[in-house]
UniProtKB/TrEMBL annotation:
CDD domains: STAS_SulP_like_sulfate_transporter (cd07042). This is Sulfate permease. Residues 447-561 form the STAS domain. NCBIfam families: sulP (TIGR00815). Keywords: Membrane, Transmembrane, Transmembrane helix. The keyword Transmembrane helix applies. SUPFAM superfamilies: SpoIIaa-like (SSF52091). It is found in: Membrane. It is a multi-pass membrane protein. Its main location: membrane. The chain crosses the membrane at residues 25-45, 51-72, 84-102, 108-132, 144-162, 188-205, 212-239, 259-278, 335-355, 361-379, 391-419. PROSITE patterns: STAS (PS50801).
Length: 588
């Protein structure tokens, strides 16, 4: 290792970047930091309220996570902060633990402890190199989860958009409470006008003028409208004066019986945060030529959550939209985040009343437009066209969020992803192979039903590991393939796709070989991987399976069979259906 690398090995990644800082980056980083702040402030406040917390906590959180990631983050471009996808999860964890009517101080303490737990989990995952955990949610189930989350956020924000409040919990209850509020005449016309105009303005500007800070424009116009039209006097709720200054270092105080439900929520939030971070890091790294360092990213996310939790903050994640804004503004390093954090602190110290006239429906507009970006209806439609099984997985994850809630929904999403992996291993694709004149090698008889076969030889391919869950099905398949009269002389397994054989499968293979031998049928293998062959020998299967029945290639095995039997290639038109694998394939 070069001397410089050794000297910097124990320096956090963000500090390494700052040590190698280039002077020509400074102006671009400062400008990007100013632009980024215009998005950080309104979104931070909006997402704090989405999480059921005071708006000011979103600003505290933004400052601390930006500073922590600047020190520990390996990516020069990623931007962290309060996130629309985590807000409902935080609320689902914290709000059930506080009394009806809400104790904001207790809610902040619980959210801060939740952030500390998320930080501890993600730091531990990074130190233990558990980056693969982020892969527990497949893309189809993540699409369904995000669609359900988007709908949950949208329905939850509608009362604020229309100018009233509800105490309902859960998508269905909130949906009913919203329409009851409409029926009871609780709508505040001025609030609806502000919120609806804000949504239209953000969406139009983002589509037509993507370089214009749409959220900032909407916020400024909303504050101006409050002054011009006296929106507060027309029943529109305003953000009000924010507390001045910055909170001291605080260890959140929670009850002992709060820790278990908080930990359960922290696991789900950590998983979503890690998956979001890895996907965003990969996307932006490919555009900037940087390397994705998953374990360092997890440690950095953990550090950001720990820092936020010690200063009355709540869990954070990376933000694709804020990162894109920073990138378009010319950000070159983590100094962009430091500039953004410094500007927010200056605002809190010098201008705490800057957003006093910001209408609450305007914040609802920010959250609703963010929720629309979470939904992926095009991806859902693509799943329907491309693979119905994964479409059903996506819909199941969506229903898990919509019907059971946000936190159970993430458990449903993870469970469905794991079950799908198990299903594919349990029922891997398998088929009978034949020879197609003019095409080298041996081919799937489902694709080539007129392929030629050798009388007395069945070539079977099993595309997966042999283990306890599918070993008996594998054995039963081969027994069915040998039922016809006259029975084949060889059953040749194209074993190249078989990546493993466990002890249960080894016992099944031994019983299968003995059963076939009693009928004069030999079990033969070709193209078996060396690690798998080593396991076969370690299991002492060669006591029953003839060691001479292992061939390096299918061609060698077929040549040996023809030499011993004199068989000639022929097209099978009767007798055993060549591509019949007994209907064991899973529906797709």
């Amino acid at each position: 290792m070069p001397a410089e690398d050794t000297r910097h090995r124990f320096i956090p990644p963000g500090l390494r970047t700052l040590l190698a800082y280039r002077r020509e980056w400074l102006v671009k980083d400062v400008v990007a930091g100013v632009v980024l702040t215009t998005l950080l402030v309104p979104q931070g406040m909006a997402y704090a309220e989405l999480a059921g917390l005071p708006a000011i906590t979103g600003l505290y959180t933004s400052v601390l996570c930006l500073l922590a990631y600047a020190v520990f983050g390996p990516s020069r471009i990623l931007v962290l902060g309060p996130d629309s996808s985590l807000g409902p999860m935080i609320a689902a964890t914290v709000l059930p633990l506080i009394a009806s009517g809400g104790d904001s101080g207790r809610a902040v303490a619980l959210a801060s402890m939740l952030s500390l737990m998320v930080g501890a989990i993600t730091v531990l995952a990074g130190v233990c190199r558990l980056g693969f955990i982020a892969d527990l949610i497949s893309k189809p189930t993540m699409i369904g989860y995000m669609n359900g989350l988007a709908l949950t956020i949208l329905i939850g924000q509608l009362p604020k958009l229309f100018g009233f409040k509800t105490d309902a919990d859960g998508l269905i209850e909130e949906f009913g409470a919203f329409f009851r509020g409409l029926a009871d005449g609780k709508t505040v016309p001025a609030a609806l006008a502000v919120g609806a105009t804000g949504i239209v303005l953000i969406l139009v500007l983002q589509r037509r003028l993507p370089k214009v800070p749409a959220v900032l424009v909407m916020v400024v116009l909303s504050i101006a409208a409050t002054s011009v039209f006296d929106l507060g006097g027309h029943g529109v709720s305003l953000v009000g004066e924010l507390p001045q200054g910055f909170p001291p270092l605080t260890l959140p105080h929670v009850r002992l019986d709060d820790l278990a439900p908080l930990f359960g929520g922290a696991l789900g939030i950590a998983l979503v945060s890690l998956a979001d971070t890895i996907s965003n890091a990969s996307a932006f790294a490919s555009r900037t030529g940087q390397e994705v360092r998953g374990n360092e990213e997890m440690t950095a996310i953990g550090a950001a959550n720990l820092a936020a939790g010690l200063f009355q903050g709540f869990p954070v994640s990376t933000s694709g939209s804020r990162t894109a804004v920073a990138e378009r503004a010319g950000a070159r390093s983590q100094l962009t985040g430091i500039v953004g954090a410094g500007l927010i602190v200056l605002m809190l110290v010098l201008l705490p009343g800057l957003f006093r006239n910001l209408p609450q429906p305007a914040l609802a507009a920010v959250v609703i437009t963010a929720s629309l970006s979470l939904a992926d209806l095009a991806g859902t439609a693509r799943l329907w066209k491309q693979r119905r099984t994964e479409f059903l997985l996506s819909i199941s994850a969506f229903l898990g969020v919509a019907l059971l809630g946000v936190l159970p929904g993430i458990a449903v999403a993870v469970g469905l992803s794991i079950l799908n992996v198990f299903r594919r291993a349990w029922w891997p694709y398998n088929t009978v192979l034949g020879r197609v004149p003019g095409l080298p090698g041996f081919h799937d008889m489902r694709s080539y039903p007129d392929a030629e076969q050798l009388p007395g030889l069945v070539i079977h391919r099993f595309d997966g590991p042999l283990f306890f869950a599918n070993a008996k099905a594998f054995r039963n398949q081969l027994m069915r393939l040998t039922r016809d009269e006259p029975p084949p002389r060889w059953v040749l397994i194209a074993a190249e796709p078989v990546t493993d054989v466990d002890t249960t499968a080894a016992d099944e293979l031994e019983e299968l070989d003995e059963a076939l031998n009693e009928r004069g049928i030999s079990l033969v293998f070709a193209e078996m991987k060396d690690p798998v062959r080593s396991k076969i020998e370690r299991y002492e299967l060669t006591r029953t399976i003839n060691p001479d029945h292992f061939f390096p290639t299918l061609e060698a095995a077929v040549a040996a069979f023809r030499e011993r039997t004199g068989a000639q290639w022929t097209t099978v038109t009767a007798g055993r259906p060549p591509a019949d694998t007994t209907g064991e394939q899973p529906p797709d």
